What we know:
This protein is of the alpha+beta class.
Amino acid sequence: MADTQVEEKTYTLDEILTAVNRNNRLVLWNDDTNTFEHVIHCLIKYLDYTDSQAEKIAWIVHTKGKCTILEGTWTEIEVYRKILKHEGLSVTNE
Length: 94
């Protein structure tokens, strides 16, 4: 009978969350409070969008009511949700 070898691998919590929760989305919602300039500024500053990308997202949010602005792990999305919420933006983790 042949010997069976078992390989053990250790995963971090973040690696597990990444594998399990890849479909989390950060959604930016339209509101009557924030200006286009503020929304665009936040998208550029915190999410590294270009000026034109941020402007396009702002128009999508304005015309359609919402736009997915980031996809990733629950942990990543939650960090950015808190930052953008602190800036006054209407965002949810879905």
